[in-house]
């Protein structure tokens, strides 16, 4: 049967059926496929959004962790800076004496340092920490004045002898006339001592503590003493360096000092061409009389003491004798 033999109604039904089949096929292979792909993409979008939310949460946790680490680091540095990183007695003494000098306390009697014992740091498990607290104490003693005598410090401005060792009559007369007459200018010490302690008290209260102050009456004047404690810490994993620039944490004294020729101690006579004291003899009054010399036997010490008394130190060490002629120094019969 051909299409030409079909009636119009039959042809319409066939065309309608073809359209239905085409529409069904288009839905099956087109729209349905698109709907399935769309659903898959929706699921993937949901998964990716969940993954993004998780990563954003991790990122925020990282930021929070970094902030916590930085805050903890700052707290550690703050704790470390509350202690002196490296305690040296020369720095501490220099600083303390400088403060007292600046507050017009020239009459130093003595200064010394001592280590103060501190408790070991015990960990939670009972072990002893490698970190430790350190404390050094500077003890100073100063003298007040009585107001009736000429002051030692004034000898610099008004010496009693000239550069040749001759007496300066005018200055001696002034000194004698002023002795025994009360002078407010020559009566000082206590207020200046307290002022110096107040400066030290405020310099760094976290690691500098005044542990003792004492005043002792001594025949019309007083000797004043104080003990200043400086705290440091030995920290094995310290992450910061010393931030203080004042005298007790770092050296603030003279650094351009030539010590090639020696600097510590004074022999009877200096025999070192590199020393600024080359050829200078010790003050003879410092070695007069029988002095304990741990390195010498009693007999040798006694003989040497007698030689000083009879011949003088200068003759023994060669001072005043032409070089190479030390053997010509006269010797008494008792010494032969």
Layout of SSEs?
Elements: H1 8-81, H2 89-102, E1 108-115, E2 132-143, H3 169-178, H4 190-203, E3 208-218, E4 221-234, H5 298-311, H6 313-317
Antiparallel strand pairs: 1-2, 2-4, 3-4
Helix pairs in contact: 2-4
Strand content: 5-15%
Cα radius of gyration in angstroms: 47 Å
Biggest sheet statistics:
4 strands, antiparallel
Number of helices: 6
Description:
With 336 residues, the chain is an alpha+beta fold. It is 39% helix and 13% strand. The protein contains six helices and four strands; from the N terminus they run H-H-E-E-H-H-E-E-H-H. Helix 2 crosses helix 4. The protein is rod-shaped, with a radius of gyration of 47 Å. It starts with 7 loop residues before the first helix and ends in a 19-residue tail after the last helix. Mean pLDDT is 81; it is low at 320-336.
Task: Write a concise synopsis of the structure shown.
The chain is built from 6 helices and 4 strands. The protein is α+β, with helices and mostly antiparallel strands.
Characteristic key phrases:
rod-shaped; single chain; disordered C terminus; four-stranded antiparallel sheet; 13% strand; alpha+beta; 6 helices; 336 residues
């Amino acid at each position: 049967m051909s299409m030409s033999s079909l009636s119009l109604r039959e042809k319409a039904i066939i065309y309608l059926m073809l359209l239905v089949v085409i529409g069904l096929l288009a839905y099956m292979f087109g729209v349905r496929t698109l709907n399935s792909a769309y659903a898959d993409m929706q699921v993937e979008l949901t998964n990716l959004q969940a993954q993004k939310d998780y990563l954003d949460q991790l990122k925020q946790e990282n930021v929070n962790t970094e902030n916590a680490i930085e805050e903890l680091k700052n707290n550690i540095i703050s704790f470390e800076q509350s202690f002196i990183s490296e305690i040296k007695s020369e720095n501490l003494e220099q600083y303390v004496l400088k403060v007292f000098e600046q507050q017009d306390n020239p009459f130093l009697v003595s200064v010394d340092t001592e280590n103060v014992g501190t408790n070991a740091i015990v960990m939670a498990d009972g072990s002893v920490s490698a970190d430790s607290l350190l404390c050094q104490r500077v003890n100073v003693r100063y003298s007040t004045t009585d107001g009736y005598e000429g002051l030692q410090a004034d000898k610099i401005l008004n010496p009693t002898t000239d550069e040749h060792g001759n007496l300066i009559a005018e200055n001696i007369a002034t000194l004698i006339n002023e002795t025994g007459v009360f002078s407010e200018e020559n009566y000082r010490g206590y207020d200046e001592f307290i002022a110096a302690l107040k400066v030290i008290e405020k310099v760094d209260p976290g690691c500098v503590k005044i542990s003792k102050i004492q005043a002792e009456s001594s025949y019309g004047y007083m000797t004043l003493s104080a003990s200043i404690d400086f705290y440091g810490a030995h920290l094995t994993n310290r992450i910061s360096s010393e931030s203080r620039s004042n005298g007790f944490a770092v050296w603030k004294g003279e650094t351009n000092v030539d010590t090639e020729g020696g600097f510590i101690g004074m022999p009877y006579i200096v025999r070192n061409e590199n020393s600024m004291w080359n050829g200078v003899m010790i003050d003879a009054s410092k070695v007069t009389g029988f002095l304990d010399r741990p390195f010498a036997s009693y007999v040798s010490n006694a003989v040497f003491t007698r030689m000083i008394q009879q011949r003088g130190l200068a003759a023994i060490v060669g001072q005043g004798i032409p070089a190479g002629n030390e053997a010509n120094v006269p010797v008494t019969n008792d010494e032969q």
